[in-house]
Amino acid sequence: MSEDGLTASIDKMRAEGLPDVAVATFKHYYERLSGGETGMLPEPDIEPVGDLVDAEELPDGGEDALDRTVIIKLNGGLGTSMGMTKAKSLLEVKDGLTFLDVTVRQVLELRRRHEARLPLVLMNSFATRDDTLAALSRYEDLEVDVPLDFLQGRVPKVRTDDLMPVEWPDDPAKEWAPPGHGDIYTALVTSGMLEALLEGGYEYAFVSNSDNLGAVLDPRIVGWFASEDLPFAMEVTERTDADKKGGHIARLREDDRLVLRETAQTPEEDLDSLQDTGRHRWMNTNNLWINLRALRRTLDERDGVLGLPMIVNKKTVDPGDKSTPEVFQLETAMGAAIGVFDGAAAIRVSRRRFSPVKTTEDLLAVRSDAYELTSEFHVQLDARRDGPPFIDLDDEHFKLIRDFDARFPVGAPSLVECERLVVEGDVAFGSGVVVRGLVTVRGEGDGQRKIEDGAVLEG
Description:
This protein is α/β, with parallel strands linked by helices and 459 residues long. It has helices at 3-15, 20-34, 63-66, 99-114, 129-136, 184-190, 193-199, 219-227, 271-274, 292-301, 360-367, 395-398, 401-407; strands spanning 46-47, 53-54, 69-75, 92-94, 97-98, 120-124, 149-151, 155-156, 158-159, 176-177, 204-209, 232-238, 248-252, 258-261, 282-291, 311-316, 326-331, 345-348, 371-373, 379-381, 390-393, 414-424, 427-429, 434-442, 449-451, 456-458. The chain is built from 13 helices and 26 strands. It starts with a helix and ends with a strand. The mean pLDDT is 94.
């Protein structure tokens, strides 16, 4: 083990005033890295997961547990893949509302209908906190008896050659990395949020990503989770060919425990098995249920270090400049906690509960009439559709949100009758454009092609 590297990393964290539990957690993963661990989960060590409880078949109920439930949204992302520099949840997504607006109004409507406290709590990063809290200030009745947010932590990036914490004087912020969304468990402790929730009488947490508009609290799942007295549960949905390169759940052969295997944890020789959706049927939606008392008890037993499987992310210190030094970022996935809690479970849910917006293609679909905003502030597929339209936009002209918005200046075209839309080259869309069936639109050489107002595109 690189004792110098570990000592230097710990000193760096302490100089930043990071809490002891955060330091101990980083030390745990650093020691595993320097000891030669890769975090890999080979195919011979796991078995597929068979049939599961189906959320659609659960009975009505859960009302008794709602007043003891908190909704936690991961809100640390900046939407950098779309060229954003502010919280992704502040992006307009539907009918003039942002992701955050939709989430807040969902929660307020749930409170009204069920007469429950149901706090909304965000896990922010240093980059998203100020803008997000400013946006929330418009909702004077949102905060109840716990704070509105807590902060995600950060860890040093370490050099791949000597495992020393990297130094980058040109931009010291690049010396640090978020430790993955698995940091939620450490951050709940270090922020004092876990104790605040327990003292407030909250027992259950529903956790999801802020960009997943399908992740709406379902009282039936609350009731199932509480009545089964589960410590942890993961909502999973059936994998399709579009999910072949993503992670899945499995069972460990040695003890039959459920585990989450991500692509980064899969040896190259096992990638075919990873992508076999017939063998490994279930993907993690990142909609999770946590028994807060079980979390507190497990953390106490482990001296504050939950010990999630490690993900070693190899990058450059400046992700935008591949010539800069290579570093390791030590991360964990919050869903990996399914392998930590004794008695953890998975529950099958509809694909409608997994509708993340990761790209401008996803955003175009949701902004269009292929999705509707209900009176309960659920963003869901139009009843006439079985699934979202397939959309492929030219990266050069549509990947970044500023370029995307410039080419849809008056909003999305009608896609409710669209099966597939492919846009090649530089194309701008007028108002009232309708797309039906399978459509490919090509640009006009060096210039921008403009689709006129009211155009109907078919075939």
